[in-house]
Amino acid sequence: MHDLPHLAARLYGTPLLLARSKLDVILGALAPRLAGQGTFLDADAPLSAEMAVTPDGIAIVPVIGTLVARSGYLGTASGLTAYSDIAESIEAAATDPGVRAILLDVDSSGGEVGGLFDLVDHIQAIRAQCGKPIWAVADEAALSAAYAVACTADRIYVTQTGEIGSVGVVAIHVDESAADAQAGRAWSFIHAGAAKVDGNPHQPLSDTARATLQADVDALYEKFTALVAERRRLSPDAVRATEAAVYRGDHPGRSAEV
Fold first, then answer.
1. DSSP tag of 140
2. Crossing angle between the packed helical segments 207-232 and 116-130, to the nearest 10 degrees
3. Catalytic residue annotation
4. Contact 172, 24 (CB under 8 A)
């Protein structure tokens, strides 16, 4: 329970590259646990996050669960995979003489912004240096931040029921002021700096705080769409036209869209 406030801080009031369906699941699980009802455990926790190498020299790197900058002690038991762990696995495969190609095994609805674009740049640098092909398979989901990771691959494969896309950014503000008032709690913030307490959950979101958060979301969205456009050889307008839609592997317009 003591780690839940830290987890909430990584979800609320900060942009996320996470598919809405997964966001609903996480928020639905997190809210009652913040109220003291049980412990947080992601139902999508991967069975293994270890890289494996097939007999014919294909390194399989898992990109599974909710993607975060740092997983801490929660690790894979809570369905979290750190960007640094993905980078280390790819580096190990790239420098292993027994590995001839790298396959990103992706089953993730996305995650945090922090660390994502650095990972993407790092993977592209590794590919340029080692010369080994990198492939990705959406089995069963490569959404949002996970799709950004998959876009670093030379080829992306999707199972028939697999999902890709969700090229968008979301941020959440939880207004707890009504619940505070009902519980007889009143919060006072003594601060220096006009923006110091912007977006705190104990006050309604101000126009200034909303505009600042929206500007951050918009800037990250432009960065995300530019990445997808470059890697998938599309125009940024074509990527934006998807409106963060999710496509299944057998969707007739999928390849033309993302």
1. E
2. 20
3. 144
4. no
Q: How many domains does the chain have?
A: 1
Q: What pLDDT digit, counting tens, does each position of 86-115 carry?
A: 999 999 999 999 999 999 999 999 999 999
- Strand segments, DSSP code E, in the chain are 16-18, 52-53, 58-64, 66-68, 80-82, 101-108, 110-112, 134-143, 155-158, 163-165, 246-248
The answer to whether residue 226 is domain-embedded is no
Residue 186 belongs to a domain: no
Q: What is the pTM of this model?
A: 0.83
Whether residue 77 is predicted with pLDDT greater than 60 in this model: the reply is: no
Domain that holds residue 56: 4-171+243-250
136 within 8 A of 150, measured Cβ to Cβ = yes
pLDDT at 166 over 80: yes
- Give the confidence band of 80 by pLDDT, cuts at 50, 70, 90: confident
Burial of residue 252, with CB atoms counted within 10 A of its CB: 0-12 exposed, 13-18 middle, 19 or more buried:
exposed
Angstrom distances, CA of residue 141 to CA of 65, 98, 149 = 10, 29, 12
What is the model's pLDDT at position 123?
97
The CATH number assigned to the domain holding 48 equals: 3.90.226.10
